[in-house]
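Continuing from the previous page...

OK, I double-checked the sequence for Zinc finger MYM-type protein 1 against my notes and this is the correct one:
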Amino acid sequence: IRNIIKKIKENTFYAILLDETSDITVKEQISFCLRTVDKESFEIEEYFIGFYETPKTDSNTLFNILKDILCRLELNIHNVRGQCFDGASNVSGIHKGLQARTKEIEPRALFVHCQAHSLNLVTQDSMRNVEKARDILNFIRELITFIKQSPKRLSWFKMLQTEENVTALRPFCPTRWTLRYSSLLSVMDNYNELLTFLSDFSKTEKNDAGCKAKGFLKQLKSSDTYIMLKIVISIF
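Thanks. Re-ran it with the corrected sequence; updated structure tokens here:
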């Protein structure tokens, strides 16, 4: 961190990137990054600074955390030239959002809506309006949940994964498109294993879970499912 801050101070101006998330214990926190332009090479450099726990996510609390971080790093807030957040009103609001509060101190701190978040929203809305794409995403989410929510089913499935470097099934994230890609890819990489598992499980288990597995198997065998999975992977 010390070397990063030294370099940022040498470049004078910097931008802040902040996003809200929660950890595995469901504690609210923010991720904080700094971006600067090297004054010699003019190359953009971005640095992850850390995670910071926050009791609330209102703009006032986030602004106090921001000031505290910059104070600890000994960075002058008047050298902020950019702010990059998502579209939530607590950070992007033009009157009381975090970006507005920062601009009250440094008007030259230009706010930019995070392009990754924008692309994520566009992709989500597009998928919702394409029936087959929407259906395949829902199917993949339900299939992965069906296997991973049961230790017995997950263990059974893992026994069918014979290769040492085989891809594990990734949880399907409902909000982040970058994580959706890894989830969809894990299904494609395990397509044959999934077919075998669902076939064996549906024949062995004479209960609701077995019936559900049979339904998953029928859909997974469909050429439409395979083709749409290929298409959405290329999109994400």
